[in-house]
């Protein structure tokens, strides 16, 4: 059984990973800047500390075989003011660079480091059907630059003997948190609709497949460098809305012009009006078996307890 250390482990993805690995019998240590809400995670294994600042927690991290770094200021919760954009970038780059420095300069038990990144790496487009795979270059724009700096901060060339994987995570679909509850709310109230032309791509993944794919990477020595964490069948925003409406037995009647979304959300609106089509080539090549490869299967599972 492995000792696993997770920064940002109190978040949506970290909690799912912790639950999965603890159930398998692994020991999971979680770093948090604050005391998480009661009942969200068991106290056991929780360490207090800031992932951007040196602290005693780095001693524990060095004693683990597996490190997963997920810490980062939310890109969704607040408006993208210049200060907030810097916070989004800095929280990821600084916390990642600190782990890289520690592992490069001090001996450790660490065998594999899964460092989060995002599919924003490839750029964000209004309508572009190009299929992006791991070998493709970074795109342009704020999110692409953040992802590029974030990945560069892992400095794998300094970490001999440690397998470093940059997990380029797509839009994670979870029953109660993140993207899905937000987009399904208007549909439930018969106010669902498509934003813009609907040709922007949504490269999604079911949270269960994300967790299984992280575990697959942990165990598979053939995987290193960037790995796309997305389902094999991305959809357009239009396709997503149609599938969601059908699943919820609601109409998809409206069309929201992008300028309206921008008026409400500001620059952050690009999260809704733009997207990217990403294919999980490395997962395919290594034989990973997706439990939810298509959106209808994923939504049928995630919305299964919904009332009509
Ligand atoms: N969810 C998605 O669809 C998705 C898609 C692509 C990429 N990702 C990336 O995957 C990672 C995990 O995603 P998630 O959805 O689990 O995120 P999340 O729920 O927002 O959790 C992120 C964690 O990072 C820590 N954090 C927040 N602000 C921070 C700051 N300013 N400095 C240092 N730590 C901070 C928090 O832990 P404490 O408050 O306990 O310290 C928080 O629990 C993120 O980096 C995210 O960008 C997620």
Describe this structure in words.
This protein has 308 residues and is α/β, with parallel strands linked by helices. The protein has a domain of 194 residues: 3-Layer(aba) Sandwich (Rossmann fold), CATH 3.40.50. 37% of the residues lie in helices and 19% in strands. It has 11 helices and 15 strands. The strands form 5 sheets. A 7-stranded parallel beta sheet has the order 3-2-1-4-5-7-12, with helices on both faces. The protein has a two-stranded parallel sheet with strand order 6-15. Strands 8-11 form a two-stranded parallel ribbon. Helix 1 packs across helix 6 and helix 3 packs parallel to helix 4.
- Kindly state the mean pLDDT as a whole number? 95
Which CATH class of the domain at 3-170 and 205-230 is shown? Alpha Beta
In this structure, how is the largest beta sheet organized?
Answer: 7 strands, parallel
Quaternary organisation: single chain
* Second rung of CATH, namely the architecture of the domain at 3-170 and 205-230: 3-Layer(aba) Sandwich
Distance between the termini: 43 Å
CATH topology assignment of the domain at 3-170 and 205-230: Rossmann fold
Which series of helices and strands comes N to C? EHEEHEHEEHEEHEEEHEEHEHHEHH
Low-confidence stretches: none
Class inferred from helices and paired strands: alpha/beta
Q: What ligands does this structure carry?
A: NADP nicotinamide-adenine-dinucleotide phosphate
Strand order of the largest sheet: 3-2-1-4-5-7-12
- Count the beta strands: 15
> What is the CATH homologous superfamily assignment of the domain at 3-170 and 205-230?
NAD(P)-binding Rossmann-like Domain
- Shape call: globular
């Amino acid at each position: 059984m492995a000792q696993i250390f997770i920064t940002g482990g109190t978040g949506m993805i970290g909690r799912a990973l912790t639950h999965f690995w603890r159930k398998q019998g692994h020991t999971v240590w979680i770093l948090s800047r604050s005391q998480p809400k009661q009942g969200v995670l068991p106290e056991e294994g929780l360490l207090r500390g800031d992932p951007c600042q040196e602290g005693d927690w780095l001693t524990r991290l060095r004693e683990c075989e597996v490190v997963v770094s997920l810490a980062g200021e939310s890109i969704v919760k607040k408006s993208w003011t210049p200060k907030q954009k810097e916070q989004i970038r800095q929280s990821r780059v600084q916390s990642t660079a600190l782990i890289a420095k520690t592992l490069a300069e001090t001996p450790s038990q660490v065998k594999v480091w899964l460092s989060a990144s995002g599919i924003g790496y490839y750029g964000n487009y209004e309508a572009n059907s190009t299929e992006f795979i791991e070998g493709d270059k970074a795109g342009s724009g704020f999110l692409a630059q953040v992802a590029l700096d974030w990945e560069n901060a892992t400095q794998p060339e300094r970490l001999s003997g440690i397998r470093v994987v940059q997990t380029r995570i797509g839009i994670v679909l979870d029953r109660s948190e993140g993207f899905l509850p937000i987009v399904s709310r208007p549909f439930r109230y018969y106010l669902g609709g498509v934003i813009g032309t609907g040709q922007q791509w949504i490269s999604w993944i079911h949270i269960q497949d994300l967790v299984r794919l992280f575990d697959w990477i942990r165990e598979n020595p053939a995987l290193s460098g960037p790995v796309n964490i997305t389902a094999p069948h991305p959809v357009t925003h239009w396709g997503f809305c149609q599938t969601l409406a059908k699943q919820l037995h609601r109409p998809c009647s409206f069309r929201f012009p992008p300028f309206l979304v921008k008026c409400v959300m500001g620059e952050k609106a690009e999260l809704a009006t733009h997207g990217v089509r990403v294919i999980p080539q490395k997962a395919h090549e290594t034989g990973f078996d997706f439990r939810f490869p298509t959106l209808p299967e994923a939504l049928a599972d995630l919305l299964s307890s919904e009332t009509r």
